[in-house]
Amino acid sequence: MASARPDPAGPRFGAARHFAVRSLSGRMVLLMLLPLVLSQFLVFRDLGRSRAGAKDAAALASRIGLMSMVGAVYAPAAFEEMTSLGLAYVDRLGADRSIIKATTGIDYQPILPPTRVELDQALDSLEVGYGRTVLQNGQTVTERLADVRTRLTGERTALDEHRGDGAQISAVMAAILSVADELATTADVRRMATADASVDLVQEQAFQLLSMVQAVTTETRTTSAAIGPPNASLRPADAPATIGVADFTVSRYGQLALAEPAAAAQWKQLMTSEAITVYNRLRPRIAATFALRAQSDLASSATGTTPLVTNPAFVHELADMLQESFERLSAFEHFAAMRFAGLTADATAIGRQADRVVANWMLLLILVTTLSIALLALMLWTTVRPLRRLTSRALDVGRGEIPTHRLRVTGPSDVRAVTVTFNSMVATFSSFEAQLRGLASGEEPPSSGSVEVPGSLGESLRKSVQHLSEVTTRLRESEALATAIIDTATDAIWTVDESGTVLSANAAGERLLGFRAQGQIGRSLPDLFGGRAEVVQLSGELDFRGADGSAGHALISQSEVWVEGRLIHAVFAKDVSERKRFEARLAFQARHDMLTGLPNRLAATEHLDRALERTKRLRRSVGVLFIDLDGFKAINDSRGHAKGDELLREVGTRLRDGLRDSEFVGRLGGDEFLIVAEGLDLEQLEALGGRLVEALSEPVVTDDDVYVVSACVGASSTDVEVDGLELIRQADAAVYQAKSRGRGRVVTFDEALQKAIEANAETEQALHAALGGNELELYFQPIVDLRTRRAWGAEALVRWNRPGHGQILPDRFIPVAERSSLIIDLGRWVITNGLQTLAEWQHDPVRQHLNLAVNISGRHLTEGDLVEDLQLALLATGADPTKLEVELTETHLLADFERANSVLRCLREWGIKVSVDDFGTGYSSMSYLRQLQIDTIKIDRIFVDRIQNVGYDRTIVEVLLQLAAALDLDVVAEGVETAEQLAFLEARNCGRVQGFFLAQPMSRQQMDSWLGLWELEANALS
User: Which of 174, 202, 170 is nearest to 189 (CA)?
Assistant: First the structure.
């Protein structure tokens, strides 16, 4: 009984797994790395603190710079405000400034210019350094100061011209100080959260310094307002309170300054300066003066006099107080400037010190890391490297791979001893391997030259070698025969085990999957055939991908056989890829248009039916768009079918690109396409049609040509059960309606259109009966030759006397006839009856000069046999063809130019004249006039109707008349309804005219009567 196969993981790694790193070398490396990682962690922690301190110091220096700039604004703003208010006050009193100077002893004039310069410089510094800072109202500093400085310039100019306004000056200065206060709030360094005590101390000093400057400035301004010129933005009653605030902030800052040696000396020098000591001596008198000044101002208001006139001594005393207040504020300003510079230097020094600490820590980190790496490399080279080599070789032996060369004996003594023992063991295994390899290759057992294995193991090995040699010979003979049979088979054959692993593969299997047999052995056959889970699923027709990624199809079957208690599957596969591709091509061709690649009519109707089935379940609408190109036949005929096919392919591409994935497009045939869209209402369906019309209207550019086509779209939608062909029929009816309205139209099928279709169908049936009955009647509208004033002839017009409806005009039944072949039958009737009338005129000596104009349908020209119909009618009636003029519209002539030219050539040979009706309403007839050999052009009534008004239409008529004269063509102007129109045309040598002004269409009898009257009138005029 065979023993269980040992687990290699047992002897190699052991059963215990209490430690994640099992190898000795790994544990040694880990123990070396732990101190290094710990030390680096500690270094990085302190390094982070130092970097944060350096960053905080840099930010503090920046904010102190802003505070210094803000502090530099307060004093000059207060000086200019108080000086300007003093001068404005003097000017308002009507006193001369020099008299006030002599009277009070204070001269504002020389103070003002340097104060203005100092304030402008401070504001310039703010704009340069912090102009982009956004204030509370959303403006930047630059924008706010631009407004304020404009007002400041205006107030300075007014003050210099002795018309300064104290209230306006106070308002401007208050606005400047408001900007400074907002920036001071922005620069509040106490908002910075730091962990450095030195940084915190500098922060507190900067904040208290700026607060002191603000408080002293406010105290000076309110004191000036209380004892000096009035200030509109400050109340004198607030002076005592501001003095108290100023004293508090000065005292609080003094405590901080005295605690710092660098600031203490400067603070003591400030406090003992003359400006401060003098002001402090005046402090009691200033407080008492507030009440005296208020009483003086009250008395001056009652008596109408001023203290400047009534009490010069009091005024001198006030002037001294103001002067000392100015001196005190100036002293604080100079002190603040020095201290801000010192604090900035302190912050910068703190930052430099932090940077030095960071550099020192970085140097220490580099040294520690370098030393650790060196020690680790030494250990790896002397101990870990030999251990890793020994471990790697041991793992190879455990996997059955015997090394071919011995290990070098290096490393510590215990490692060297293990290495020597391992080399001896490998040598013994190598002798076993050499003898077994000889058996496997069919060679004779090793002779004395081979390495002998001693003991009972050697004896057993020799007997096994002899027996295996005999069995191997017989197996090789059987295997060679089976391999020859299998490899010549046309079908692919594999043997796989019960898990699906390939055991063998023949040459056909290599060709089918694109893998060599050796590359398939050991792999999962279900995976090779597309990742199927089990081998039993390999049955029937299956799709797969070869090694090169190409798709294939195979017909697979299999059988099972038990070999030595083991289930083996024999899998057989026949390649049917070519047959499947052929079937796919046939299926595609049956349901797709080969020109555009779009689904064909069959696929389109099936898709529509499926969409309608979904409508029943999902209760949503289904819409179709029937697209018919405009002018495609002309391009197909003029440029050839190859160009037409190229255009259709581009149309198909644009339609595909213009749709969503859920929308369907197919080609019904010719230049007709069908769109199926689900879930759209009529408005959305019309919008989709409009987008497609716009996309198709873009020029199609090829290598040697440019095409411009348009399309008409008919839309139909339903949310109820309806037949798909009915929905297409509705859309087809809508697209015909769109074409009747012009190019590039989108029309939706609705109830009104359905009624119109039913009415047209009824009209068509009735008209068909009318052609066989006696319901049609020929009417004539006279045409007058302006050159002779005689009747040239008439235009034949058909009328339908329909029973129960009365007389119906052509505009109601001609469009219905145009949709069917009835228009050709109707044209044939008009020609026959018109030529009959012309023949009768020829036998009347009075009317034999008359001519007849007959309208010919475009379909009669391009689809019917117009030449034969005219020939038969002329033979039957005996009418003179030279008296006949056929009228064709320019669009009909150009729709099929070659056929039209051929027909007109025959007519000209018989003497029949050709007229272009509605000339000027087309787009290219002028370039074909000579090629088609036209005799007459008829100017459309829409131009004649507006020729009395100087403008575009009048110019067109004049140009057409000149063109006709240049080409030697006759001209007929239709729609003449006024005497002025007639006079205009006659003055410009128009050949013929017709219209209601001359005569309306009339019956044959009425025509004969009119001709008699007209001839009498014409003879009388002549």
Answer: 202
- Its sign, for the CA torsion 373, 375, 377, 383, is negative
**H or E segment and range at residue 777:** strand 776-785
Sheet holding 551-563, edge to edge: 502-505, 492-497, 566-575, 551-563, 540-545
Give the phi and the psi of residue 957 in degrees, each rounded to 5.
-60, -45
Task: Point out which residues pair with 717 in neighbouring strands.
Answer: 623
How many Cα neighbours within 13 Å face the side chain of 844? Answer: 13
Tens of pLDDT, residues 592-617: 888 888 999 988 899 988 988 888 77
Distance in angstroms between the alpha carbons of the first and the last residue of the chain: 143
Helix/strand/coil for 503: strand
Pairing of strands 913-919, 884-889: parallel
Cα–chain center distance at 837: 70
Is residue 122 within a helix (H) or strand (E), and if so which, with residue range? Answer: helix 112-130
The DSSP-derived string for 904-930 is HHHHHHHT-EEEEEEETSSSSGGGGHH
Q: Any idea of the CA torsion for 893, 896, 902, 906, to the nearest 10 degrees? A: -40
**Tokens in use for 428?**
């013994």
The DSSP string of 677-706 is: EES--HHHHHHHHHHHHHHHTS-EE-SS-E
pLDDT tens-digit map of 839-897: 999 999 889 999 999 998 888 887 778 889 999 999 999 999 999 999 988 766 766 67
- Strand duo 936-939 + 970-974: pairing: parallel
Please report the pLDDT score of residue 104 as a whole number: 56
Q: Are 497 and 566 in contact (CB under 8 A)?
A: yes
**Token digits of residue 451:** 């390495």
- The owner of tokens 């510079």 is 341
Q: Identify each DSSP E strand in 35-184 by its residue range.
A: none
CA distances in angstroms from 380 to 231, 371, 374, 375, 391, listed in the order given: 86, 14, 10, 9, 14
101-125: buried (b, 16+ CB within 10 Å) or exposed (e) per residue?
Answer: bebbebbbeebbeebbebbeebbeb
Which DSSP symbol is given to 382? I
Give CA–CA dist 751/757, Å, rounded. Answer: 10
pTM: 0.40
Measured in degrees and rounded to the nearest 5, phi and psi for residue 701 equal -105, 125
Locate all alpha helices (DSSP H) within 558-681, ordered by sequence. 577-591, 601-618, 632-639, 641-657
Q: What is the DSSP letter of 260?
A: S
Do the strands 700-701 and 970-974 form a parallel or antiparallel pair, or are they unpaired?
unpaired
At 972, phi and psi to the nearest 5?
-120, 125
Residue 439: what residue type?
Answer: L
791-824 in b/e form (b: 16+ CB < 10 A) is bbbbbbbbbbebeeeeebebeebbebbeeeebbb
| Band (962; pLDDT cuts 50, 70, 90) | confident
Q: Is 533 helix (H, G, I), strand (E, B) or coil?
A: coil
Per-residue H/E/C for 744-767: CCEEECCHHHHHHHHHHHHHHHHH
Single-letter amino acid code for the residue at 181: D
The mean pLDDT value for 396-416 works out to 74
- pLDDT band for 291, please (50, 70, 90 cuts): low
Residue 818 structure tokens: 């145009």
Within a 13 Å sphere around the CA of 320, how many CA atoms are in the beta-carbon half?
Answer: 14
Strand positions, DSSP E, 464-583: 492-497, 502-505, 540-545, 551-563, 566-575
**What's at 457, amino acid-wise?**
L
d(CA 945, CA 547): 79
Contact call for residues 50 and 361 (beta carbons, < 8 A): yes
With beta carbons less than 8 A apart as the criterion, state whether 630 and 891 touch.
no
Q: How far apart are CA 289 and CA 291, in angstroms?
A: 5
Pairing between β-strand 664-669 and β-strand 672-678 as defined by DSSP bridges: antiparallel
Q: What are phi and psi of 584, to 5 degrees?
A: -65, -40
